[in-house]
Design goal:
With 150 residues, the protein is mostly helical. It has one domain: Arc Repressor Mutant, subunit A. It contains nine helices and two strands. A two-stranded antiparallel ribbon has the order 1-2. The longest helix is centred in the N-terminal third of the chain and has 20 residues. The model has no long low-confidence stretch (mean pLDDT 87).
Length: 150
Amino acid sequence: MKKYETESISRYINQLYRQGIAFLGKEYKAYNIGAGQYQFLVYLYMKDGITHDELTEKIGVDKAATTRAIVKLEEAGYIKRVQDIKDKRKYHIFLTEYAKNNREEIINTSKNWEKELTEKLTKEELEQFYYLFRKVTDSPLEELFGEEKI
């Protein structure tokens, strides 16, 4: 029996996720944010002023998770919410000067995790690693599970 037939990919993905949360949680503690907020902040660095719903869609979480992260980022002084002029139900999320001033350190923390994660790989292995992850994650869930409801 081949080794990959007795191992679970999910186990490795879970292990990477847990290690990443531990690493980022420790590093981001100095900036008064948790591992659950950094991905929102990093996305806002790319697209400041996005709405709550757009951010939810781009990050790929539910609205409640976005709300929790936004509240924590606002309490920590990283973002401010501004009500949409045309649609009072919508809020745009903007980075504060404090967030902008800490941009490099926060982005570098994420880069440091990726560097730590991939430092043992050759350039070719790293390209293959990304290729395979993109290939697996670009498949819609409907393709993976057929007509079943998830």
